[in-house]
């Protein structure tokens, strides 16, 4: 029996307030309105950005359904939807692409004005939600909300992908892999023969390492306080790894020593802490080095630094979703994965059923996982 046009009752992991576990409850998911798509989620990755909401570092409106790194199948579409149809395999994207606003049109832009990234309003573009629990409105997270069996997104936030793509792997292209890989390829434009340093060797950091390697970097230094991540980093392309806790001097000075006083050509901060952002900046060459902020900082974070760190020529920049235009790039990245141009297997350390979501976050918080994938 078709569910199109009907309210669907399904399981979802809801957070009622920060610093509390997920509650798996039965919610109601309303049908998609005009230009919206309702998706049956097949697999969803657990990302550090979701954990930032749990810890209270990111300020959002509760109650909320988190999750933003997933793959699924279109269950139904609203009036006017033309890019996908029922039965299509898709990846919802937290960075929409309407194709009409100035960031979408600009060749270097990708932060579509329909995004809910940073503002965290928690509603669809029309100002309403399709989620409810016992009559109470449930907020969405960055235009996606994938910790639920069904979600509703705006058409600008969904990309059709190869029907044969394994959802439990390509879901990573919805956030972690694309963010890190693109930070090196698109945002930094790493050059062959260059020296890179990646601060933070989680899923996004390892993807940045992979991007540096794909771009032809000759030296890729992984930086993390968890030595257990070093073998994985070397597996995906790091030439060496260092633990800041092993040194009495600041890590930026260590990296300058390792590069004969020059500093690295490119550095990537994939932690989201202001102190590591400054360390990454000062690790790169004072004249021609480029440092890219990839990790999501806590809401309200501020940085103070002397202008001399920049005026000498260093480039300091940020990136969202690795600089990719989401709906254009996601299908191509999935195609590249299917053609074995890169692998996602090293990033996936755990696979578990959806109802084990709290265990998945415990693994992340304990530093025992890179990416845990929830299967629906």
From TrEMBL:
Recorded catalytic activity of this chain's protein: a primary alcohol + NAD(+) = an aldehyde + NADH + H(+)
InterPro entries associated with the record: ADH-like_C, ADH-like_N, ADH_Zn_CS, ER, GroES-like_sf, NAD(P)-bd_dom_sf
Membrane-crossing residue ranges in chain numbering: none
Span of domain Enoyl reductase (ER): 19-374
SUPFAM superfamilies for the chain: GroES-like (SSF50129), NAD(P)-binding Rossmann-fold domains (SSF51735)
CC per GO annotation: cytoplasm
CDD domains: alcohol_DH_class_I_II_IV (cd08299)
E.C. numbers: 1.1.1.1
Keyword field: Acetylation, Cytoplasm, Metal-binding, NAD, Oxidoreductase, Zinc
The keyword Ribonucleoprotein is annotated on this UniProt entry: no
Top-level taxonomic group: Eukaryota
GO molecular function per UniProt: alcohol dehydrogenase (NAD+) activity; zinc ion binding
Principal location listed in the UniProt entry: cytoplasm
Cell compartments where the protein resides: Cytoplasm
A Pfam family that the UniProt record links to this protein: ADH_N
Cofactor names: Zn(2+)
Family stated for the protein in its record: Belongs to the zinc-containing alcohol dehydrogenase family.
UniProt-recorded name of the protein: alcohol dehydrogenase
Taxonomic classification: Eukaryota, Metazoa, Chordata, Craniata, Vertebrata
């Amino acid at each position: 029996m078709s569910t199109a046009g009907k309210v669907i009752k399904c399981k979802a992991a809801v957070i009622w307030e920060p610093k509390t576990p997920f509650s798996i409850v039965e919610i109601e998911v309303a049908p998609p309105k005009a230009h919206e798509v309702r998706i049956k989620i097949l697999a969803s990755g657990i990302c550090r950005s979701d954990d930032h909401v749990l810890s209270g570092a990111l300020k959002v409106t509760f109650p909320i359904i988190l999750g933003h790194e997933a793959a699924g199948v279109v269950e139904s579409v609203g009036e006017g939807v033309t890019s996908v149809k029922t039965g299509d395999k898709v990846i919802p994207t937290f960075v929409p692409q309407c194709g009409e606003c100035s960031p979408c049109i600009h060749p270097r832009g990708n932060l579509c004005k329909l995004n809910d990234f940073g503002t965290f309003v928690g509603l669809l573009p029309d100002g309403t939600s399709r989620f409810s629990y016992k009559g109470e409105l449930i907020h969405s997270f960055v235009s996606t909300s994938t910790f639920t069996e069904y979600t509703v997104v705006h058409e600008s936030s969904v990309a059709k992908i190869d029907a044969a793509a394994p959802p439990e792997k390509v879901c990573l292209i919805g956030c972690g892999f694309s963010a890190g890989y693109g930070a090196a390829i698109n945002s930094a434009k790493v050059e062959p023969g260059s020296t890179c340093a990646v601060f933070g060797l989680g899923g996004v950091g390892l993807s940045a390492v992979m991007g540096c390697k794909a771009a032809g970097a000759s030296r890729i230094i992984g930086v993390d306080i968890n030595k257990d991540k070093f073998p994985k980093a070397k597996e995906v392309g790091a030439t060496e790894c260092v633990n800041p806790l092993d040194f009495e001097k600041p890590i930026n000075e260590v990296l300058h020593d390792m590069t004969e006083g020059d500093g690295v050509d490119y550095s990537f901060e994939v932690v989201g802490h202001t102190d590591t952002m400054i360390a990454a900046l000062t690790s790169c060459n004072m004249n021609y080095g480029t440092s890219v902020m990839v990790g999501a900082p806590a809401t309200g974070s501020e940085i103070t630094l002397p202008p001399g760190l920049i005026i000498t020529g260093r480039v300091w920049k940020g990136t969202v979703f690795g600089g990719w235009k989401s709906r254009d790039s996601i299908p191509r990245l999935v195609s590249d994965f299917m053609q074995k141009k890169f692998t996602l297997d090293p990033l996936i350390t755990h696979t578990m059923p959806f109802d084990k979501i709290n265990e998945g976050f415990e693994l992340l918080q304990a530093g025992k996982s890179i990416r845990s994938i929830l299967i629906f």
